[in-house]
Amino acid sequence: MDGRIPAPAAVEFRRADYDARTLAALVPALLDGTGMRPIEHGMRVLIKPNFLAPAAPERAMTTHPLVLRAVVEHVLGRGGRPTVADSPGRGSFEHLLNKGGYAQALAGLDVAVRPFRETVKVDIGAPFGRIELAREAVEADLVVNLPKLKTHTMMLLTLGVKNLFGCVVGLAKPEWHMRSGIDRKLFARLLVQIHRAVNPAVTLIDGILAMEGEGPGRSGTPRRIGLLGAAASAPALDAAICRLLGVRPEDLPTHAAALAAGLVAGEPGIRGDFLPVSGFHLPVLAPLTFGPPRLQRLMRRHLVQRPEAIRGRCRLCGECWRCCPAKAITPHAETVGFDYDRCIRCYCCIEMCPHAALKTAETPAGRAARKLAGLRDRVTHRMGRAGLRRPRRRAH
Ligand code: SF4
Ligand code: SF4
Question: Can you give the pTM of this predicted structure?
Answer without folding.
Answer: 0.81
